[in-house]
Records
---
Amino acid sequence: MSGGTRCNITQATDNRGIVAAYGAPGKFLHSALGFLWRSGDHRVFEAEGVAVKVEETGKIFPVSTRHSTLLQALLNRLQRSGAELALGEPLLQMATTAMGFTLATPLRTVTTPCVILTTGGQSYPGFRHKR
Ligand SMILES: Cc1cc2nc3c(=O)[nH]c(=O)nc-3n(C[C@H](O)[C@H](O)[C@H](O)COP(=O)(O)OP(=O)(O)OC[C@H]3O[C@@H](n4cnc5c(N)ncnc54)[C@H](O)[C@@H]3O)c2cc1C
């Protein structure tokens, strides 16, 4: 939303700058942002061939100003990682087993030693009600 549909990648500052902009409650962000900076923030996209620009406000955007540019970069990286992307296949049930976890979708049951849940949330709950 801060980018007005142009896909704002990040701000031209470091993790301390972002925490400071968030205000006093932002201390909890230090560990996650510290990891992000070590792994490269917008340089992740540049490494995938995405040209980025820094605006006067410090906001960093893809030069294309299209979210599809960033999506394709992430998909390229995902493909190289060997991970499988399963779309349109919601997780219905998850159970622990002696070996790890069993995941049930409408299409299959998967067993796996570990699970990372990233089901999102309401990034800006007020936005939904204003539409
Ligand atoms: C209008 C708008 C504009 C924004 N603009 C920007 C911007 O310019 N720059 C920026 O950095 N951020 C922006 N954001 C914020 C950004 O979109 C979110 O912070 C980000 O998408 C959160 O990522 P996430 O992976 O945590 O969750 P999500 O992107 O919400 O992903 C969670 C995924 O989990 C899936 N899921 C949920 N339940 C299940 C289930 N049972 N089984 C399988 N899958 C499931 C969902 O379908 C979804 O695909 C914007 C947000 C909004 C609403």
---
Amino acid sequence: MRFCSSGSEAVHAAIRIARAATGRWKVARFEGHYHGWLDTIYIGESPDAERPAAPAAPGTRGQPRSALADVIVLPWNDPDALAAAMHIYRGQIAAVILEPILCNTGVIPPRPGFVEAIREWCDRVGAVLIFDEVITGFRVALGGAQSLLGIRPDLTVFGKAVANGFPLSVVGGRRDLMEHIASGAVLHGGTYNGNLPAMAAARATLDALSADGGAVYGGITDTGRSLMDGLRRAGAEAGVPVLVQGVGPVFHMWISNRPSIDEPRTARTEGRSSTRCSPRRCCAAACGRSRADVVPSPPPTPPSTSRGPCAPRGRRSRKCATLCRPSHRVRTGTRRMIQGGTAPPWPSECWGRPFAPNDSGIRPAAPATGATS
Ligand SMILES: Cc1ncc(COP(=O)(O)O)c(C=O)c1O
């Protein structure tokens, strides 16, 4: 394991290790997932979600396009697009990185079999599988999302909960991968790496979380479940259609009639979503405040799919331009489960039932370091 101060740094280290170990540059990632703000991984919205291609679009001003030359963006929960990318970029992909349970665009767990497919593809094409558990780590279970999904990545990144708010992040995994840092082939620097107050906080946190075999997770999960139930109940009582999706203490609420949402584009645009809730950041609905505080104003009318109401092409906002693109209309119109499916596409555990706490045990030019291009 290696320690640093922020999730972004730990993600950066994981990608560098993967590139050094494979001698390849391309990194596949998924739309809607967030892996920190650094130039090499932060992205904007994909211009065409149907055809994954590198380079990804920069997500912020000041970010050079060249930094994303080797980043491929794939749609989440779409095994066909995954397979297509693995064929197109065969022999070029160093790593596939994902939030194993997507928590940064709504909360969207993987469809059954999707992460398994990613694992299999990584094995088949020799890519390093990186789980970014900066949100899910030590939160959804002692063993993180990987223990719930039963899938072991090659590298894992932790942050946030690991030191209960102290600035600490971790990258760890397969010995042969981490060896690239231990041997000095890959540089991992940082003045505050492994700083003592943060390390002490992590030890105290992990001691508390693992006491009695992780018994505390039962309470955390129960609290999350009652918050989710409370939001649904509040919605029903107020006559407002409420969709709540989540895992244990991490969940998200939409004002929506949909039975579920399984891809980030819909998650982003659906109704007017509330804040992401957790027992530590609970929203008003579950706290019994007045309805006026709780029920958001009606959702904004989505931009028309016809060209009529839009501003002339040159003056359209980026969002409007995206929504008005024919490929977007086709895609959103044909999503399989969105149109009135009954069962959610992931295990019922993802809907708030408690998970058994489960230890996973994580198992890692003429550049100065093996992974810088
Ligand atoms: C999944 C995930 N990865 C990485 C990061 C980046 O972490 P940091 O903000 O500590 O750099 C975040 C931050 O929210 C995150 O949610």
